[in-house]
Amino acid sequence: MRVRDGRAGRCAAPALAVLLVTALLAGCDGGPASPGSPKGSSQAPERSSDASGALDWKRCAAPEDGTAPGPAWRCATLDVPLDHARPDGRTIGIALIRKAATRKSARIGSMLFNFGGPGGSGVDTLPRAASAYRELNTRYDLVGFDPRGVAASSGVRCRDDAGQETAYRRIDMTPDTPAEEAAFIADGQDFGAGCARLSGPVLPHVGTSNAARDMDAIRRALGDDTLAYFGISYGTELGGTYAHLFPEKVGRIVLDAVVDPTADSVGHARNQARGFQRALENYLKDRGEDPAAGTRRITTLLERLDEEPLPTASGRELNESLAVIGIVTPLYSRSAWPTLTAALDEAENSGRGDRLLALADSYNGRDEDGHYSTRSHSQRAISCADAKARPTAAEARALLPEFRELSPVFGPFLAWDTAGWCAGWPVEGEHDTPEASAPGAAPILVIGTTGDPATPYEGARRMADELGEGVGVTVTNRGEGHGSYGESDCVTSLVDAYFLDGKVPADGHVCS
């Protein structure tokens, strides 16, 4: 749930993930593995690019338990250095998928996408989301990729399904006793040790700056002089990093649902506590309930679940930690608010946890057979490769009064997560906050939604400021939910005009 994206948790979800979750993508589960790769594979995929970087596009194979994306899609793999500081050393493969522009005579070039995470598979997501970008596809080839450490691009694996299930059942993500606290920290350390054991060689190299360098290699392999890019959620941090590293290669770039580049790991947790509480209160107002009273009602439910989990038809129980994840999931999109109402009603009035557990499972990438996606593994590996901060349990405990004040529902969860997320991580982080300054770059559209729960609106202005004067162009979307393209007609029209015709809106434009 947290930005550092918005991460979908440790055991697979202690942090509140910054993933694009809209009706376009039908929920927030990890979905099937990327075409041509086994689920959770931590091995580099078979190479299909030659030494010159040219791409060998082929029909996409069907993922495990899934279907191929269709004849319009082609897949390839690009070799890039594992360590960009050693360009002649070991390489890994970056998995790509492409749908050619439908109006070839008017083709502008390629458009690269990142839908969030970190840890989301673009190879899997883009075909499912492509109908929303039909207009852009008329003149752009749509291109998705699995960033290094994700899915088919040497995806990180840290724990098996049984270990995931055990952690969700036994670990209290808001520990109340010394024993619960010790178990919480130990579980984080065990997760990191599993990552080192199963995916050790790639862990030092999966950070965002390396992914941005891969993006420039993709640009070159596609034959584009500059990069056209659509980044959503964590994809905005990746886009800002790219702009900083390669300002002269910035073409038309849109950043939607923007991660605050000025916030460190604790700052991200603080931002999300505010953002999710704001979204919860907007939801409560929408249903005619006093926000303060509604918040007290939900915290009372969580306190009961901490003492006595609710039964479900599956035989699994809904505990407090899973309930928090289940509550946060529908807040990503206003269209899902009725689902939250039904789930809370079932828990409070029928004494059953089926609906909230189903929402948590969707968020955590758990399917009906009990298999968990490895997206949260990649998410944590990328986040901890980026962030230097390693807060202690004592430091997290000291945050609790402030975070409870910010959000009685989500604050304790997010405060504790600052310590559990990278506990005992085997790789040092790269920075305190990412660098996004891009002097001399072409204008970049930076879109913030006022009711965004996972990447609060304020982050968009900060990103625009960091990109620099004349580079960051802010667009405000007055609305709810995480991500605005395809949700707001005004935003969609502005973005289409920018990508297709090069029309840059006035800085500060407001869509109501």
List the helices and strands and how they pair.
Elements: E1 58-59, E2 73-81, E3 91-99, E4 109-114, H1 122-129, H2 134-137, E5 140-145, H3 161-170, H4 178-199, H5 208-222, E6 227-232, H6 234-245, E7 250-256, H7 265-286, H8 291-307, E8 310-311, E9 317-318, H9 320-328, H10 337-349, H11 354-364, H12 375-386, H13 393-406, H14 411-420, E10 444-451, H15 458-467, E11 472-480, H16 489-501, E12 509-511
Parallel strand pairs: 4-5, 4-6, 6-7, 7-10, 10-11, 11-12
Antiparallel strand pairs: 1-2, 2-3, 3-5, 8-9
Class by helix and strand content? Answer: alpha/beta
How far is it from the N-terminal to the C-terminal residue, by CA? 27 Å
The tally of strands reads 12
What percent of the residues sit in helical stretches (DSSP H or I)?
25-40%
Question: Which key phrases capture this entry?
Answer:
alpha/beta; 16 helices; 10-stranded mixed beta sheet; 512 residues; two-stranded antiparallel ribbon; 13% strand; 12 strands; 39% helix; disordered N terminus; globular
Word description of this protein:
The chain is an alpha/beta fold. The chain contains 16 helices and twelve strands. A hairpin with a 5-residue loop joins strand 8 (310-311) and strand 9 (317-318). Helix 7 runs antiparallel to helix 14. The longest helix is centred in the middle third of the chain and has 22 residues, at 178-199. The radius of gyration is 21 Å and the shape is globular.
Produce a short descriptive summary.
The protein has 512 residues and is of the alpha/beta class.
